[in-house]
Specification:
single chain, 229 residues, alpha/beta, 4-stranded parallel sheet, two-stranded antiparallel sheet, 6 strands, globular
Length: 229
C-alpha cells in the first residue's frame, strides 16, 4: 500500500485539504492544526455506541463505529465532499490510514480478517473515477495489515442519490441491490464492511443482508463519519 501514499503525494497539491494552507514536510493531506480539531467520535472504544444503536434489531453485526462526527457545515462534511466530488481520493486513503491505527488496537475490530468497501455501481465508478469507500478501505488496510476485497460484494443496480431521501425512501432505494458473487472464499471470516458516511444505515444494512449468505461470517462496520450523533 506504500506506493499509493507516494503516488497521491506526487499528484495532489501540498496544501491542507481542510484549510488550504501549505503543509509542512512532515504533514500529509491535512495539517496537524486541522487534524487535531476534527471531531473524533472515539466509538471504537465501546461495544455500545450511537452507530451500533442504528443497527440494533435490524442487522446482526459484531461491532460498529465511525471515526468522526458529520454535521452540516463542519470540516468533516467539507472533507467528504472533496473526497466524493472533487477528485480527491487521497483524502479517503489518508483518513483510512488514521482510523486503521485506532481499529487495529480495538478489541472490537482487531480480529477483522478482510475489508469490504460498499461498492459503487460500475457506471458511477467509471464516472467518478474511483470508489470513495474503496479509498478509505485501502487506507484502513495499510494500517491494519489485512486485505481489501472488492469482488465478493457487487452492486447490481444503479440508484439515485440518498442525500435528500427519508429513512424509508433510503431503504426502498437500496433494497436488494447488492449481491455476493462468491459464497466460499470468505467462509468463517470476520468482515469489516466500510462506507464513507453512515446516516440512516440503509445502505450498510442492505450490504449486511447480502453478506450474511456466507456461512459463519461475522460482520463489523466502520465509516469515515456518522451523522446526527
Amino acid at each position: 500500500m506504500m506506493f499509493l501514499s507516494d503516488f497521491f503525494s506526487l499528484i495532489f497539491p501540498n496544501i491542507c485539504a481542510c484549510c488550504g494552507n501549505s503543509l509542512f514536510k512532515h504533514e500529509e493531506v491535512i495539517c496537524n492544526f486541522c487534524e487535531v480539531r476534527l471531531p473524533k467520535t472515539m466509538y471504537h472504544h465501546g461495544e455500545e455506541n450511537p452507530v451500533t444503536e442504528i443497527f440494533r434489531g435490524r442487522s446482526d453485526i459484531f461491532s460498529a463505529a465511525a471515526s468522526y462526527h458529520f454535521n452540516k457545515g463542519n470540516k468533516v462534511q467539507f472533507l467528504v465532499h472533496q473526497l466524493k466530488y472533487k477528485n480527491r481520493p487521497d483524502i479517503g486513503f489518508f483518513l483510512g490510514k488514521r482510523y486503521g491505527q485506532d481499529l487495529r488496537d480495538s478489541p472490537f475490530f482487531k480480529s477483522a480478517d478482510v475489508i469490504i468497501p460498499v461498492p459503487l455501481h460500475k457506471k458511477k465508478k467509471v464516472k467518478r473515477g474511483y470508489n470513495q469507500s474503496e479509498q478509505f478501505a485501502n487506507g484502513l488496510a495499510w494500517s491494519m495489515k489485512i486485505p481489501v476485497d472488492i469482488t465478493t460484494l457487487d452492486k447490481t443496480k444503479a440508484t439515485e442519490t440518498q442525500t435528500k431521501k427519508s429513512r424509508f425512501k433510503r431503504w426502498e432505494n437500496v433494497k436488494e441491490i447488492f449481491t455476493v458473487t462468491d459464497k466460499e472464499t470468505l467462509k468463517g471470516q470476520h468482515i469489516l464492511l466500510v462506507d464513507d458516511v453512515i446516516t440512516t444505515g440503509a445502505t450498510i444494512e442492505s450490504c449486511v443482508i447480502a453478506l450474511q449468505v456466507i456461512d459463519g461470517v461475522r460482520i463489523s462496520i466502520a465509516a469515515i463519519a456518522a451523522t446526527g450523533h
